[in-house]
Amino acid sequence: MNINKLKYILVSFISTIFVPSILFAQTSGSSSSSSSGASTPTNIGDVFKHISESMTSIPSMIMGVATIAGLGFAVASIFKFKQHKDAPQQTPLGQPIALLGFGVMLIWLPFLLQSLGTTISGKNDKSDKSGIGGSTPPDWIQNQ
Known about the structure:
This protein is mainly α. It has helices spanning 3-18, 20-23, 44-54, 58-86, 94-107, 109-121.
């Protein structure tokens, strides 16, 4: 079995486990229960509607991971600055500066996405441009 086929199988398995509602375009509730109000998709429009509704939690997950990673890079840069101060020949100054730059970029990622959402949608209000914290997908993801 070659490496590319193994990667494909691994990605398919992981996506089936962690994001089945996106993979199968189903609602979050059980599809057999009619009391939850969730309907089974009957046409391609319903399938894409369920996919876009399922994607509302992905931006907040990405923002959480980016913020934690950004804080981690910033703390690592502080330790690298200390190492550079103690032994400037062993730790070049560019290493802690690069770590600090990556940390700042990751921490500011939510603001960048909000600006990008405003640019794409063309609206001036500050509500749910990036899809973070909203109950519905932002306008630039939804089908109008």
